[in-house]
Structure formats: C-alpha cells, structure tokens
Amino acid sequence: MRKFVIALAAVFVASLGLVGAAGAQDAHIGTIDADPVAVPAAGEHTLTANGSGWLPDTSILLTACTSPAETLVPGVSDLETIVAAAGEIEPLMHCDLASAVPVDVDGDGNFTAELTAEVGDNFFLSAGALDGSQAGAAWIPIVDPAAAAAAADDAGDDAGDDALAETGVETGLLAVIGTAVLGAGVMVAREARRHS
Predict the structure, then answer these.
(1) What's the total number of domains in the chain?
(2) What is the pTM of this model?
C-alpha cells in the first residue's frame, strides 16, 4: 500500500508541476531564516527553520532540495544566480520528500521547525503549501569558518561575517522551486499516516 501511495503522489506531483509555475507566481512568499545560515562542511546537519510572514493558521511542508545548477559560491553568487539555480530544481528528482516535515503556521504567520538533512552544494531549505498559496526558501551554503576568517583578514574587514548573514533568499521566483511539490509531500505524509 505504501508503494501505491508514493506512486499516487508522484502522479499528483507531476500533474501539479504543469500548473505549479503559474500558481507559484501568485503565491504568498514567506520568509525562512535558517539556523545555522551556513554549515562548515557537507554532511548531515540539523537545521532550524524560523518562518515569518506566512499565512496565519495554515499547514505547510518543510523539505530539503538540491539544485542541479552549477555550484553556487558564497560571497560570489549573486541573487539572480541563486534564483536561477533554485529554478532548475525538479522536485521529484531534487527534493527529499520522504523526510519532509509537516509544519503548522501559528496565528501570527510564524513557525519554527527542525529538519535533519544531508547538506551539500546548492542545498535549499524550502517550504510551501499544498494548494500553492504560499512558498519560501533559503539557500544554505557550505562555508569553511577558517577560510571565511582568512578572507575577512585579507580584506581587512568583517566581510566574511557579513556574507554569512545574507544567505537566506526571499523572492517570488524561489516559489517556483515547487510549491506544488511541497504540497504533494504533505499529501504523502498524510496518506502514509492514514495507512500505517
């Protein structure tokens, strides 16, 4: 039965993907502030997502996605490049829906949730609603603290610290990451609970 639910979700996601881009353009964009904003090395990390500006008293799904784009570089990749990388994500191939976390947004439009994920290059912490009404994402780069400190020393200022503080990305274009896919993950989670 579990395989059937996953197959059904895949078909559902594929059908939503056809309308997801149009719906995502109209989506309410919430903010995700990740803690940590960067990780020191690739590998498994537990991330805390603090959301604000979401639609109050709703349910969303928090998940991990990895863009197949050329590797993003902290302090070098600009917002346009980061958004383009997010746009290359094909949710069924690049998002870990199996470990997605359902999240309830409070009455003030805020949430806090933890997600443990395998962080690598081009990792995005993403959230969205099943109906495509809201979405948001943050890029979590890999930044070696020693290299960042050395770069700041070479520049003669705290540029390395400033670069780490600006890794979250809130933009309507990131909603294309897969508002529909994230919502489909909620469906998978609900169906899995119903049949277990």
Answers:
(1) 1
(2) 0.66
